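Hello, quick one for you while I still have it in my head. No rush at all, and the record is pasted right below.
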Amino acid sequence: QVQLVESGGGLVQAGGSLRLSCAASKSIYSIKPMGWYRQAPGKQRELVAAITSGGSTNYADSVKGRFTISRDNAKNTVYLQMNSLKPGDTAVYYCYLSDLIRYWGQGTQVTVSS
């Protein structure tokens, strides 16, 4: 059983920055694809960013150039650096890890005020 523990959410003004972290409970899973989804009230969950075990990345068009996903395999952790935040980025952000099944974190709230 893999547990994903997220941190780093909060309230920030538009134009500000936040960094989300997601730590996996088992080091063996540090080489699995990981990423972040988000879900805003009344909307479907959407992929924000993903990173492969080799470090290749993929981003939603809405966050390209503003968000950066990275990973530290030694710390079993994936990060999401979010810059130039907009009110439209307000959502609960969920970390995931892909293995035979997909594991999810508990979610962390990001609120961007105008």
